[in-house]
Write a structure and sequence with these properties.
Layout (H helix, E strand, L loop, with lengths): L19 H60 L2
Length: 81
């Protein structure tokens, strides 16, 4: 007996139906997708925060180097006539 020609989901004269395991699997896939998207969003936020922190650290390094250079050249500038 062959399936009816018009219905893609129907087999042997019965209607297509969703069974409980298939519904559970689909729900699990949707939850996994949402969790994955949330994790990607959190990782992007963490990357942005790390970039800002890196900029602040470099600014602090340049500030310390600048302060050391000022202290090193201050006696030279004071000794010049």
């Amino acid at each position: 007996m062959s399936p009816p020609m018009g219905d893609e989901g129907a087999r042997y004269g019965f209607e297509a139906f969703d069974c409980a395991p298939a519904l559970r699997l689909e729900a699990h896939e949707r939850v996994s997708k949402l969790q994955n998207e949330a994790m990607v969003h959190r990782l992007e936020k963490i990357e942005e925060m790390l970039e800002r922190l890196e900029k602040r650290l470099w600014l602090a390094v340049y500030g310390v180097v600048g302060a050391i250079l000022v202290q090193a050249f201050q006696p030279l500038l004071a000794a010049m006539p």
